Amino acid sequence: MTIRTQLEDLSNEIFLDIFEYLNANDIFFGFTSLNLRISLLLNSIPLHINIHRTCCRHELEFLCNHLKFHSDQVVSLQVHDQICDQTSVIAYLFHRHDFINLHSCIFYSINSSSKLKIAVEKLSKLPKIVLFRIIQSCNVKEDKLNTSDAFEFSQLILIDTPSTLRSTSLYFHYNHTQIATISKVTTNLTHLQIIFYGTLNDISIYSLIPLLRIHRALRTLCVTIKSTQVIGAYNTNVPHLPFINENDLPLSSLLKSFDLQIVMAPCDIYSIGLILHCMPNLYQFVFTLIRDRSLSPFIMDLIDGQNWQEMLTSHVPYLKKFDFHISLLKYGQPLDFDNIVNSFRCLVNLYHQWDMCISRWEYWPNILFVFSKLNK
Predict the structure, then answer these.
(1) Domain spanning 47-316: which CATH class is it, in words?
(2) Which residues neighbour 94 within 8 Å (Cβ) at sequence distance 6 or greater?
(3) Does residue 255 surpass a pLDDT of 60?
(4) Which of 47, 62, 97, 234 maximizes the CB count within 10 A of its CB?
(5) Where does the pLDDT of residue 360 fall: very low under 50, low under 70, confident under 90, or very high at 90 and above?
(6) Domain ranges in the chain?
(7) What pLDDT digit, counting tens, does each position of 98-122 carry?
(8) What DSSP character marks residue 126?
(9) How confident is the model at residue 4 (pLDDT cuts 50, 70, 90)?
(10) pTM (whole model) above 0.90
């Protein structure tokens, strides 16, 4: 005789295993009306919310109706601010719920609105937040987070940092200049991804120094320094890098991985060396540069292997992995590729399995690409 088991007759343990694979909307839609036992079980499980951009307004309203009784169970939140038939979803959620036990929070493609401030206020009061990320478009024109809201999020995460926060990504276009006025803040942040975006008067490679001074517990750091300079636009009025006191540099002794991307902003081998000097125990360094030769008279120093060898051995003696990619918009006199390659032979001899190549992009033949990789 065949015994048939109804879904609602499964054990609590099996239901708990099932719930681990489902987001909150699926759980509420599929299980709330089965029976009283399962309804009581739903009151004790952690909830994960994922609102994708393909969601509809009626799904959002259905979720919010159930969150009236379960918002304190939400531990992770991933929200696209614009779904297929509604915008300002983040403000809509935080206006209705507090999420007091939230551990992880990720916002995608925020559209600024007057109601967004309530989300910032509630985020600042979360007692258990560990991970927080804002992911905007890499295209400046498609980044809809305005300057006022960008400042609020920057202030909350970089200066008024929650003591429980360990990992954050501020992937939106803002200059974060307010951190330069902070003398001392103690944070527990260990992983940070950030974009410094602004005019050449507002941002530079030295924007990193106050950041390192504040967040001394960092283990992993990914920084993009991106100017408002248009790629391909020739600029003859480029400000000089500011003076930096070498005797007053911060020390990030815990930092192990550093990814630095510089897009149309000035830097030279000396300024990179000063930043690396702050990271004596660095294990991995990834460097990307996209720029034209008008932004610095010292651009040739960056494609001289001898300079890189001296800098790396002097400032980061424990380095095990070094990758770099330089895209150079060149004008006028052609470069001597043989000299460039030969200058890097010192690194081939110094590090095992290190190689280098130079190529041109056929679509834009005036761009020089320099790729290299080091594995020690």
Answers:
(1) alpha beta
(2) 118, 119, 122, 123
(3) yes
(4) 47
(5) low
(6) 47-316
(7) 999 999 999 999 999 888 999 999 9
(8) -
(9) low
(10) no
**Whole-angstrom distance, CA of residue 330 vs CA of residue 340:** 15
Q: What span, in angstroms and rounded, lies between the C-alpha atoms of 117 and 146?
A: 12
Q: Which position has the token pair 């300057």?
A: 147
Contact predicate 249/282, CB 8 Å: no
Locate 45 and state its tokens: 């499980």
Backbone angles phi, psi at 216, to 5 degrees: -80, -10
Residue 245 confidence class, pLDDT cut points 50, 70, 90: confident
List of residues 6+ apart from 355 with CB closer than 8 A = 348, 372, 373
**Sign of the C-alpha dihedral computed for residues 205, 208, 258 and 103 taken in this order:** negative
From CA 213, how far away is CA 60, in angstroms rounded?
A: 42
What's the DSSP call for residue 125?
Answer: T
Helices (H), the chain: 12-19, 24-31, 36-42, 57-67, 89-96, 117-123, 147-154, 208-214, 269-277, 305-315, 337-343, 345-350
Please report how the helices 89-96 and 57-67 are oriented relative to each other, as an axis angle in degrees rounded to 10: 20
Backbone CA torsion sign across 197, 198, 204, 210: negative
Written as six digits, the tokens of 174 are 């803002």
Q: What is the rounded average pLDDT of the residues 33-38?
A: 80
Task: Quote the tokens at residue 152.
Answer: 């609020």
Mean pLDDT along residues 327-352: 73
